[in-house]
Amino acid sequence: MILSFFHFAILGMAAVPLIYYALALYSAWQFFRSSNKTRPPTSASYTPAVSHLKPIRGLDPDAYENFASFCRQDYPEYEIVFCVGDASEPALPTIQRLIRDFPECQIRVLIGSGRVATNDKVAKLARLVSEAQHEHVAISDSDVRVRPDYLKTVMAPLADPKIGAVTSFYLPIEERTFVDRLQSVGMMSDFYVGIVVAWQLDGVKFALGPSIATTRERLAAFGGYQSIENRPGDDLLVGRLIADQGYEVELSRYPVETVADYQSISELIHKRLRWIVVMRYMRPWGHFGLLFTQGLPWSLAAVAFHPSLLTAALYLGGYFVMRCAITATVAIWGLDQRSYWRRLILIPLWDAVAFLVWVTSFAQRSIRWRGNRYYIRGGALAPVNPGAGGK
């Protein structure tokens, strides 16, 4: 009797991820069906002067083309401001070449953040914002590449006074390795799925680091980047702190592009583990709740405890069909990634990796970031080895 109850309990629990997948499919359909349809009519002509801010550390693959894409904007007035650590920065010759090749663009380079902080990227952003010439700012990572309509598109929603920030999906430009393809499948089938579910249930109260558009006033209202320079997850925090002011954060359907550069499965796992450990500290209950979104292990458990063709068809078959439907909705229909039909077979592999990383995260007391290890204490980064701060 007890054993029978336990079997039925497993079957019931294994159905919960399928319910989550149904919610995710509905959320994805709703988001991409309605995305950007409520923008004020005047926003298309809203083109305020913009300071485009880029904190730089190291030289990414195809860095010149990434930087040059921001010099080709179809936009009336903007500047590009880089901040590098020091004069030995590997990317500095590339930026100097950019200045020579695009004399019509307003390009400036700041040397050093002028601050001592654990999160050096955020320290650089603090200086960039303080020295920006314009009220409106666009912030992007160094591996991002954009089309000429980027600034027009991300600035347009800010014409609405209710919008405090705009953030964007990001897509890989070229997937050179199997690991790149696996990471991309993870983004489409897992990360973006969680984002559209959050949008459906609670609105967007975060931002995505590759592209954020906002104003200096919105940033100053929560204390600016200097107030979060020792904390992890700065992009998520910026969106949350702007939303806490009562503004909306718009998740644009317009995607930017990033250059994929995963050299090994180990590198991918370490990055995923760092991200999920940060989430465990920032949103502990949400992190634990991921247990109920893990369709693959629950479906396997259902078949193991109640082996039959019907159970396998309902649970494993239902799991794979729903996961493919969600990924197709996000990647193929929503983000126009037509080639993803051939990638759907990788979803179970990604889900297995993601589940193992999630389990491992509970045993992690620190994160590895830029060659150093950090504890997360009181929401702030603390070096495991004193003096191991960012460059």
The largest sheet, given as strand count, sense and whether it forms a barrel, is: 8 strands, mixed
Strand line-up across the major sheet: 3-2-1-4-7-6-8-5
| Domain unit count | 2
Helix content: 40-55%
SS class: alpha/beta
* Total strands: 11
User: Could you state the order of secondary-structure elements as H and E?
Assistant: HEHEHEHEEHEHEHHEHHHHHEEE
Structure, briefly:
This protein has helices at residues 2-34, 63-69, 92-101, 120-131, 150-155, 178-202, 216-221, 234-243, 265-282, 284-289, 295-305, 309-334, 347-361; strands at 50-55, 78-84, 106-111, 136-140, 144-145, 163-172, 211-215, 248-258, 367-369, 372-377, 380-383.
Secondary-structure blueprint:
Layout: H1 2-34, E1 50-55, H2 63-69, E2 78-84, H3 92-101, E3 106-111, H4 120-131, E4 136-140, E5 144-145, H5 150-155, E6 163-172, H6 178-202, E7 211-215, H7 216-221, H8 234-243, E8 248-258, H9 265-282, H10 284-289, H11 295-305, H12 309-334, H13 347-361, E9 367-369, E10 372-377, E11 380-383
Parallel strand pairs: 1-2, 1-4, 2-3, 6-8
Antiparallel strand pairs: 4-7, 5-8, 6-7, 9-10, 10-11
